[in-house]
Amino acid sequence: MKQDLSYPIPSDAALEPPAEWAELRGECPVARVKLPSGDQATLLTRYEDVKQVLADPRFTRLLTAPDAARLSATDDGGLFNSEMAQILPDGGEEHLHWRRLVGKWFTAKRMAALRPAMAEIAERLIDDMVKRGAPGDLRADLGFPLPVYVICDMLGVPAEDRERFSYWSDTLLNLTRYEKAEVEAAQHEFFQYMSAHLTAKRAEPGDDLLSELLAAGGPEQGGLSEIQVLVTGMALLVAGHETTANMIGKMVAMLLADRTRWERLLEDPSLIRTAVEESLRMDANSGFGLPRYLSEGIEVGATALPRGTTVVCSMAAANRDESVFDAAGEMDLARKPNPHLAFGAGAHSCLGQALARTELQVVLEVLLRRLPSLELAVSPAELERVEGLAVGGLRTVPVRW
Prior knowledge:
Blueprint (H helix, E strand, L loop, with lengths): L4 E2 L13 H8 L2 E5 L5 E5 L2 H8 L37 H12 L4 H25 L3 E2 H6 L1 H11 L6 H11 L7 H24 L5 H7 L10 H32 L1 H9 L4 H11 L7 E4 L4 E3 L2 E3 L4 E4 L1 H4 L34 H18 L4 E2 L21 E3 L1
Parallel strand pairs: 1-2, 3-8
Antiparallel strand pairs: 2-3, 4-10, 5-8, 6-7, 9-10
Organism: Nonomuraea corallina
Keywords: Heme, Iron, Metal-binding, Monooxygenase, Oxidoreductase
């Protein structure tokens, strides 16, 4: 195994993968890396290895065991190590029960019903961006607010609090940006906010996910405990806006970085669905990847990994594996099939993937129709990554039309 590469691995360009990914997949697919905390972990970069570990229900993303690696130096309260994270069941029948209760709100059928409302939000945000005049920042003007409006509506939470949610989310996704005291204070505020929100929902239920979870009663009635509902709300607010908000900006930037891609979609909008999937596969800036704690020894890629190993699954590196995807380094807007791992695999695959896909498709449909002349206002090389968080994104996406 290659020794102590620093992880995350930096890249020279915001939309391009680090050169090390291809080297690791070819020569050292099971590599030792050093995390921002200084702890060691094992990095997986090959498709089959990543899929094997992600799909194995024995291994969880909760890094709460005493010998699990800490992701960041502040890690008592990060997304994967916090006491809060332990409140939601992470395996077995309890986890499946939680997914069934919450997953009812994220079915493809329910997402199809939400499409017109999403399109309306996108239209309104684009109107505002056009009014302000070019150049605009696609991330701030459209990519960030749209998923926040949608998830706030699903949770019955006021969207005007979105700047606070964004800050609280960032602290939960901290790797190197915030100090421990700041992370703890933000989480305390977030917890208090959600607690007050649930009290209000009990008094006046609405047509939203949290009201429905409260109405289902506690564990003895087949529902969730109050604290589980609260943490579910926090988790969905973070997951429901942070990743998709960033992905909207990255997807549009990838499609505009080589404008023949955008023109192809203008000519043939039937490619929107496959273009969204290919953008998800090609995303070289998806963030940290998914950590897994090995509660028992396992062999991965002909390497024996002992119990107690913390494994980092790089879905983004796996999604460029030439043994699975023909011309893996090229963006093929019509690629089919496209079994990418952007949403993980197995029992812990992303609960909100139908929501994310629908939002990405709607944004692309509306943008192509409303702003066919859209282009990047800077060269792709000038785009800058979000730094210091477990989620990847672009700081800004300057555009003109």
